[in-house]
Amino acid sequence: MAPMGIRLSPLGVAVFCLLGLGVLYHLYSGFLAGRFSLFGLGGEPGGGAAGPAASADGGTVDLREMLAVSVLAAVRGGEEVRRVRESNVLHEKSKGKTREGADDKMTSGDVLSNRKMFYLLKTAFPSVQINTEEHVDAADQEVILWDRKIPEDILKEIATPQEVPAESVTVWIDPLDATQEYTEDLRKYVTTMVCVAVNGKPVLGVIHKPFSEYTAWAMVDGGSNVKARTSYNEKTPRIVVSRSHSGMVKQVALQTFGNQTTIIPAGGAGYKVLALLDVPDKSQEKADLYIHVTYIKKWDICAGNAILKALGGHMTTLSGEEISYTGSDGIEGGLLASIKMNHQALVRKLPDLEKTGHK
């Protein structure tokens, strides 16, 4: 019974409660919406959705945050790659044939790394387009949260936010570069990579080596944790090339640079780019140029392109054209990568390779 004989109307109590709930809803609706977005609610599995969790207005993303998540994604993917390889149960199969007629292999390492990398990036930045080498199955969707912390090494190099429109961003993921070598247990060639392109231009690159746990990252006009070597041999360069077509490059290189030129056959585009840099990894070979003479996919090269560009280097087609990271997922005509060299002079020296790349 109410005090002093006052009787409370059930209708009045109900109205009062509804008013109170309305006030609470308006106070907390913004907070709750933000929390739900972290769990990717309302998003579609696969590339592209409607607004990054990190952005206040839903229309921009901070490249510093994208770099932090990309580094984490490459490391998380690398953990899966290493775990599967060390289990020695790869579930290896062929996705078909490459243009050169070799098996295009896939393993559990590729699939599990892809799942971790894709959904970490997708949950953190649901609005951006994500292109990845492996198929993303909606039935395998995971919610993988980012703690929203930017590592100190990134903050030290890039002190202020770098906002860009979300719709201008394309992410390229390679969950396991050098799958052929992975199946042969040639671990030093294996990398996981993430690249962020803005309006088709590579601006963020991450290359992670799962078996040595070394990670290189860079942002164009931002900063990096890797640098170029102090010197390069332009007259008789050491040239790193694919293991599958070293002979093609060697013939032209010897004609162009002389008999002292060294050809280094290697697996994985990520490994080959790191060969041009000052990398504190004893298993990493050193080269002066990276040449590729056949069709290649953009997720193989985008991260390396971004890192080289951030350090003042170049990666172009063999004819010297810049590579756009929009549209199709591959490029014809091969590529040439260099740093601290006259890149266009190198292009002019290698016309026969440019012709080979278009065959």
UniProtKB/TrEMBL annotation:
PROSITE patterns documented for this protein: IMP_2
GO MF, one annotated term: 3'-nucleotidase activity
Organism: Muntiacus muntjak
Pathway: Sulfur metabolism
Sequence similarity: Belongs to the inositol monophosphatase superfamily.
Name used for this protein in its record: Golgi-resident adenosine 3',5'-bisphosphate 3'-phosphatase
Membrane-crossing segments per the record: 6-28
Electron transport found in the keyword field: no
InterPro entries reported for this sequence: CysQ/Inositol_MonoPase, Inositol_monophosphatase-like, Inositol_monophosphatase_CS
Function: Exhibits 3'-nucleotidase activity toward adenosine 3',5'-bisphosphate (PAP), namely hydrolyzes adenosine 3',5'-bisphosphate into adenosine 5'-monophosphate (AMP) and a phosphate. May play a role in the formation of skeletal elements derived through endochondral ossification, possibly by clearing adenosine 3',5'-bisphosphate produced by Golgi sulfotransferases during glycosaminoglycan sulfation. Has no activity toward 3'-phosphoadenosine 5'-phosphosulfate (PAPS) or inositol phosphate (IP) substrates including I(1)P, I(1,4)P2, I(1,3,4)P3, I(1,4,5)P3 and I(1,3,4,5)P4.
Record's GO cellular component terms: Golgi apparatus
Protein localization: Golgi apparatus, trans-Golgi network membrane
Residues annotated as binding Mg(2+): 133, 174, 176-177, 300
EC number(s) stated in the UniProt entry for this protein: 3.1.3.7
GO biological process assignments: phosphatidylinositol phosphate biosynthetic process; skeletal system development
Membrane topology: Single-pass type II membrane protein
Principal EC category: hydrolase
Pfam families found in the cross-reference section: Inositol_P
UniProt keywords, alphabetically: Acetylation, Glycoprotein, Golgi apparatus, Hydrolase, Magnesium, Membrane, Metal-binding, Signal-anchor, Transmembrane, Transmembrane helix
Catalysed reactions listed for this entry: adenosine 3',5'-bisphosphate + H2O = AMP + phosphate
Domain of life: Eukaryota
Cofactor: Mg(2+)
Region (Disordered) location: 86-106
